[in-house]
Every structure is written in structure tokens, then in C-alpha cells.
Protein 1
Amino acid sequence: MARIFLDTNILLRYLTRDDEQKAQAVLSLLLRTERGEEKMITSSMVIFETIFTLQSNYQVPRIKIMELLMPIISLRSLKLEHKGVYDRAFELYCSKNISFADAYNIAFMEDQGVTDIYSYDTDFDGAEGINRLEP
């Protein structure tokens, strides 16, 4: 069975329920995916865009975004690179005043055993175990 790419707008229709008919269709798709009847793939960019849109356009609180997205990210038949990094990224995103991109990068660094980062972004200064360097 071939994988089908899952785009941001599909997730947003389900999560925002701004079109109930589409939300129900997406729910059906997600349930088929969980049962292994559908195989999907998505990218970190889709997850990031979904988070950004929920936070910026819909003013969804960070903790609610995590509660909405983690069950989808965890779907057995959804392929997503570095799936295991998202738990920690959401933990940082919800507990610190940093962007999800920065939280993900910190979690990714931890996962990869990297402690040094070249960056002018001082948000990394508050990350335990991360040493920010400037070129």
C-alpha cells in the first residue's frame, strides 16, 4: 500500500472544526490510518505550519495544541521523521516562552547528543544543557 502525503489544511480542518463535514471526513481518515487501512506520510514542516496557524490565527493555547496534535503524530501508520522528538519538543514549547521551532531544535539536539549551537537567538540561552555560541 502506497503512502499518501498528509497536508496542513487537512489537519486544520479537523482540529479547528470550521467545516464540520470536512472535520468528520478527516476523522474517518485518521481512524483508517490508526487501523492501518491507510498509510500516510507527512513532514515536520506540516506539523510546524499547523502549530503556527493554530497559535497565530486561532489563538489556541500551547498546551491545547499539544493535546490536539500528539495523538495524530502518534498514529501507527503515519510516517514522520524524528517522531520521538515531538514529546520533548512539546514539553519545552509548553513550559518555556519559545517558538515551537526552537523547542524542536533543542529536543532534536538532545536526541542527537549535540550540546553546542551556533546562533544569535538568545532563546537558546535558557535551555539546560545547550551552549549557544556566536561565530
Protein 2
Amino acid sequence: MKRQWTQAIAVGIEEIDNQHKKFIEVFNDLLDAMAAAKSKEKIGEVIIFLEEYADSHFSLEQRYMLDYYYQDYDEHKKKHDEFRNKVEKFKNDIGTNTNYLRVVLETEKELYRWLIDHIEHIDVKMGKFLKEKMPKK
């Protein structure tokens, strides 16, 4: 099911919100590719995006959490590390397995779960904390 960006899932830090918007865009692009029977061509691009996203986005969030002494930092970072491991597994599976459909379906399922469980709940909670602690502009 396609997802749309809404203010309800805004963290309130423009750079983080923009990265979340891009994540949603890539997720929706994968769904479109699946519907058009083009997922085999798209999955490699998605995996590359996810590796880059995990590096840049998670580093950014973790820096903010550390700078403002976020009490749930360790648990949040653990979720980031788990996601990185899943992306690495998907990458390895693509490289060693000709069953692209299975990898595509697992990737789509994980991205959807990440949107619902992580961005829409865990990151929003972090954003509320950060907005309270950060200097007002």
C-alpha cells in the first residue's frame, strides 16, 4: 500500500524530514515497479539507496540524539543497526540468489514495516523530544 508524507509524521527537523520523504518516494517507486512487473530492474537501485540512506540518515539522527542526550538513544541505534543488517542481507541475497521475487517481497515488507513502526512512531517520538530541547529559531 502506497504511503504519503503527512505532517503527522514530521520530526520537525527539515533535513531529517526531507530524508524521510525520499524514503517514502523510493518505497512508492518500488511498489510501482512491482505493479508494472519491473521489480527485477528496480530492486538493485532500491538496495543501493537503502545502503546510502542507512549511512547518511542514521548518522544524522544519531548525532542529534547524542547532542541532545536522547534517553532512548541506545534502543533507537539498535533499531538502526538491525535495519542495516537487513539491507546487507538483501544485498547479499540479490548477489547470490536468482529468486529476485522473494528478495523484492522481503524488501517491500521491511520498508513498509520501517515506515509504520520506525518513522511513524519511533522517529516521531524522537522528534518531539528534540524539538523541546533544541534552540528555537
